Amino acid sequence: MKSNYLTEIALPINYHINDFLAFHQRDEMGVSEMVQQNQIKKGIIWHDNPALLTITLEDGKAQIQLDIDGDKPFYSPESLTDLASHMLGLKQPVEAFESLYQTHPVIGELISRQMGLRIYQSATPFEALNWAIIGQQISVSAAISIRRRFIQVIGIQHSSGLLCYPTYKQVIQCSQNDLRQCGFSAGKANALLNICHLIDSGILVLTIPESENEIKLLTEKLLSIKGIGMWTVNYALLRGFNYLNGSLHGDVAVRRNLQYLLKWEDKVSPEQTEKWLAEFSPWKALVGAHLWQQQSRSGY
């Protein structure tokens, strides 16, 4: 049995449609996401049911469709709108940031050239954290391959044929060896399983914090888990929690693009990057995203 729901969201005039689609098109095999022209289809778990989320972007609006497998699943229009707004980055007050910095002597030209840039989000904070763990100290292509095998091994399939990105409830049933077979190192496998157990016990809650103090508490909890470092936390906050003030000074691409922006001959160190980004609090991560994007049109 399948239930279908529809809603619609207005998009800003300068919304970066291609960048949003590119973020979800990194895996060319498309086992859990498919991007076609101006549309993304993504397999998700919706309140324990396999579901297909379809987002179609056109004429200043996003049309959202949710197809849920199962008998009488939970649904509310507010929940679907909230999910789509989150993924599209529409909860980020980028207009305030642009108004403040588009005349800045160093980054003003970059901001003006990339007006409307947002940080597109994973469907859930758990997915973002999972991706950050997978991506630790390996290439993007290697991380994509591991992510693909991970989704395939857990194997929750929607009736459309797409596989659904698992929640902690599915991952917690895996063994370390199961994850190792997907390409996880022992450390990454243990870190992910520990996170799942902490969520299951209620010790760790991956809701979107509303204050810097809540961000600090969440960061401390994550850093207390063996195998989770500051890069992982900052990337997860960036991609799953709509947090725009994380410092991405540890990211090689951010440092390389900062060197390009500043026209320095020598490479920019993490310490120099951290100090430079500090000036832009509470927008450090958004500045980092603009640095990422300045030499690339393929998403970040």
Task: Walk me through what this model shows.
The protein has 300 residues and is α+β, with helices and mostly antiparallel strands. The protein has three domains: 3-90, DNA-3-methyladenine glycosylase AlkA, N-terminal domain (TATA-Binding Protein, 2-Layer Sandwich), CATH 3.30.310; 125-241, Endonuclease III, domain 1, CATH 1.10.340; 252-297, no CATH class. It contains 14 helices and five strands. It has a five-stranded antiparallel beta sheet with strand order 1-5-4-3-2, with helices on one face. The relative contact order is 0.13. Pfam families: HhH-GPD (PF00730). Residues 134-296 form the HhH-GPD domain. This is DNA-3-methyladenine glycosylase II. One of its GO terms (molecular function) is alkylated DNA binding.
Q: Can you tell me the CATH topology of the largest domain? A: Endonuclease III, domain 1
Gyration radius from CA atoms, angstroms: 19 Å
State the share of residues found in helices, binned by percent: 40-55%
Strand content: 5-15%
Counting DSSP E segments of at least 2 residues, the number of strands comes to 5
When the domains are counted, the total is 3
Tell me, briefly, the overall form. globular
- The overall pLDDT, averaged over residues, is 93
User: What are the low-pLDDT stretches, counting only 5+ consecutive residues below 50?
Assistant: none
